TrEMBL record:
GO terms for molecular function: GTP binding; GTPase activity; signal recognition particle binding. This is Signal recognition particle receptor FtsY. It comes from Merdimmobilis hominis. Residues 270-283 form the SRP54-type proteins GTP-binding domain. The lineage of its organism: Bacteria, Bacillati, Bacillota, Clostridia, Eubacteriales. Signal peptide: none annotated. Part of the signal recognition particle protein translocation system, which is composed of SRP and FtsY.
Length: 297
């Protein structure tokens, strides 16, 4: 299936590396744990999370008295499973929702919005898009192509217009047309970071004020191929923009899928969708147990 294929590179690299460590030791000792910890860090699981996993392994090994490194793989799966549990309990609500998509340029924001629009349209939902990246006219043009492809309406203003006004108009139009899903794109870059964060805060206030009974989501799109850089983006946006979830794109093109574990464990943010290709049906709801199984089985 798609998750399995999308995670193939990550699985090949991560499991091969872990197995290499397991096979190069005859017993579990401190050298073994040090080597394993280094390996997990190389697998983009993040320093903090890798240390935590190894501490947990040490304590389980102590409890069971096991000495054969062969037991480690199953224990690792168990620990990662436990860490990831509860990270997928909510996808997009069945209630009408306003979704704000944020993330730096090139991560796959427009593509993700297009895929979401097409998927929900196919499920019989009414979707409307708002082109609130008014910084570049090309951004609205590109989103327009996806809107047309998906067969959904899109609200846009002129280049340089107030993005919060686009979001306002999109919500109003969505409410008037009975939309189930109102999805707004945002700029990935402005003159500087403070500008961008101020603008996102202003848009958030418009949503808070106008979204009425709708559920609200602020989804940060991260490019999995950027590894720890993506985790750092999530950390920054989490503090200032109040994100409620992550969309992790381009899992298919990278061995750095381990960042899913770091995002959940270090940042406590749910990964809601993963992108596993460029096509319209290549966006998958994230299910933690499927992710763990795809890695280990
Ligand atoms: P934006 O600047 O954030 O809006 O990024 P775009 O949506 O324009 O995407 C940038 C590039 O990433 C495009 O070439 C997309 O086709 C590609 N892309 C987006 N999501 C995925 C994905 O899940 N897998 C792969 N392989 N490519 C993707």
């Amino acid at each position: 299936d798609k998750i399995k294929n999308g995670l193939k590179k990550t699985k090949d690299s991560m499991i091969r590396r872990v197995e290499t460590v397991i096979h190069s030791f005859t017993k579990i000792d401190e050298d073994f744990f040090e080597e394993l910890e280094e390996t997990l860090i190389l697998c983009d699981i993040g320093v903090q999370t890798s240390v935590k996993i190894c501490d947990e392994l040490r304590s389980r090994i102590k409890k069971t008295g096991a000495t054969d490194p062969a037991v480690i793989k199953d224990m690792l799966k168990e620990i990662i499973s436990e860490m990831m549990s509860g990270s997928d309990e909510m996808h997009i609500s069945t209630k009408p929702s306003v979704i704000l998509m944020i993330g730096v340029n090139g991560v796959g924001k427009t593509t993700t919005i297009g895929k979401l629009a097409a998927n929900y349209k196919a499920q019989g939902k009414k979707v409307i898009l708002g082109a609130a990246d008014t910084f570049r006219a090309a951004a609205a043009d590109q989103l327009g192509i996806w809107a047309e492809r998906a067969g959904v309406d899109m609200i846009r203003h002129a280049e340089g217009a107030d993005p919060a006004a686009v979001v306002y108009d999109t919500i109003k139009a969505g409410q008037a047309r009975g939309a189930d899903l109102i999805i707004c794109d945002t700029a990935g870059r402005l003159h500087n970071k403070k500008n961008l964060m101020d603008e996102l805060a202003k848009i958030s206030r418009v949503i808070d004020r106008e979204a009425g009974d709708c559920d609200r989501e602020i989804l940060l799109v991260i490019d999995a191929t950027t590894g720890q850089n993506g985790v750092n983006q999530a950390r920054e946006f989490k503090e200032t923009a109040g994100i409620t979830g992550i969309v992790l794109t381009k899992l298919d093109g990278t061995a750095k899928g381990g960042i899913v574990i770091a995002i959940k464990d270090e940042l406590g943010l749910p990964v809601k969708f993963v992108g596993v290709g460029e096509k319209i049906d290549d966006l998958q709801p994230f299910v933690a147990q499927d992710f763990v199984n795809a890695l280990f089985d």
